[in-house]
Design brief:
The chain is mainly α. Among the domains are: about 70 residues, Orthogonal Bundle (hpI Integrase, Chain A), CATH 1.10.443.10; about 40 residues, no CATH class. About 45% of the residues lie in helices and about 10% in strands. The strands form 2 sheets. A 3-stranded antiparallel beta sheet has the order 1-2-3, with no helix packed on it. A two-stranded antiparallel sheet has the order 4-5. A hairpin with a 4-residue loop joins strand 1 and strand 2. Helix 1 runs antiparallel to helix 3 and helix 5 crosses helix 7.
């Protein structure tokens, strides 16, 4: 169980901290990772590599360290896959979401209707099946690709990073895709961004003319 958990964490982090797509993460071998330089190179032949280019991406310090430790636990040819993403892995992902309190198990009856549960989570009657509901309050569904979305959103929220760097790290040819789909905004961040703008009217002018602020 511990080995499986460690494996899953490495796989999640490849998507969350490098922005790899699911099929790309499944394609990474140790040949693609430079543990000395702390980089990962994408390959044109990878399934899911939509731009078809080879690019060298920097690893976060945390992921770099995790991959060093994972390599020590997994000696072998450099052609070996770093992680294996199978259907069992996907089942484990949803179980991990439940364990983390991000998703919830929902009991259904024979007609597929939700069975009410008491405060302890016990269904009122015997369910025909259980499903895992990964929707958030807005109805958005959390899946593995959401880890890549999170990578893009975190990049966009990082102070000092320029839009071109975000686009490059996301490996998009069109910035509109980067910022229109992957970089999600929230009201708090938008408010903070506007609040950080320098005043249009210098303080010295505002102090001499109180009505200037209203005109501005």
């Amino acid at each position: 169980m511990a080995e499986k958990g460690a494996h899953n964490v490495v796989a999640y982090r490849l998507m969350l901290e490098v922005g790899l797509r699911r099929s790309e993460a499944a394609s990474v071998t140790w040949n693609d990772i430079d543990l000395e330089e702390g980089t990962l190179s994408t390959r044109p032949a990878w399934k899911g590599n939509k731009n078809g280019r080879e690019e060298t991406l920097p690893l976060t310090p945390g992921l770099h360290d995790a991959l060093r430790r994972w390599r020590l636990r997994r000696p072998g040819p450099a052609t070996n896959r770093v992680v294996k993403i199978t259907y069992r892995f996907l089942d484990g992902f949803y179980e991990d979401l439940v364990a983390a309190g991000i998703a919830r198990r929902v009991p259904l009856d024979e007609l597929g209707d939700v069975i009410p549960q008491d405060r302890n989570g016990k269904p009122e009657r015997e369910p025909a099946e259980w499903i895992i509901d990964t929707r958030d309050g807005s109805g958005r569904v959390l899946d593995l690709h959401a880890l890549r979305h999170t990578f893009g959103t975190r990049l966009g929220a990082t102070p000092g990073i320029d839009p071109k760097s975000v686009q490059t790290l996301m490996r998009h040819s069109d910035a509109r895709l980067t910022f229109g789909v992957y970089v999600h905004s929230d009201k708090g961040r938008l408010k903070a961004a506007v609040s950080a703008l320098p005043p249009v009217v210098p303080d010295v002018i505002r102090a001499e003319s109180p009505n200037c602020a209203k005109l501005a």
